[in-house]
Amino acid sequence: MAKPLIVEIPHELGRDEARRRIETGVEQGRALLGKSGVTIGNLAWTGDRLDFALSALTQSVDGQIDVGQDSVRVEVRLPLLLALFAEKIRKSVGKEGNLLLTKK
C-alpha cells in the first residue's frame, strides 16, 4: 500500500448536519457506483467515523471519513496502481466534498 491520501474539507454546518449530508451522499453514491461495476464491501458508521471499502477491476480501496464540528477528514488507502492518480483523486474528493458540504 502506498501512503494514505488525506483530504481535509472545512465546513460551517456543525457535526450533525455534515454527517447527515455525508450519509445522504454516500447512499446516492452507492447507487451510482454499483451501476459502474464498483463493489462496496464495507460501509460502517462508528460514532462520527465512516469506515469504507470498495473494489473495482481487481483493485481494492479502503479508508475512513471522520466528521468534525468544522471539518471533514477523508483518508483513503490506495493500492500502488491507483496511487499514480493520487493527485487527481485528491482534487476530485475535495471538489465533490465541498459541493456536498456547502450547497444549501
TrEMBL record:
InterPro entries: PHA_gran_rgn. Pfam families: PHA_gran_rgn. This is Polyhydroxyalkanoic acid system protein. It comes from Methylobacterium oxalidis.
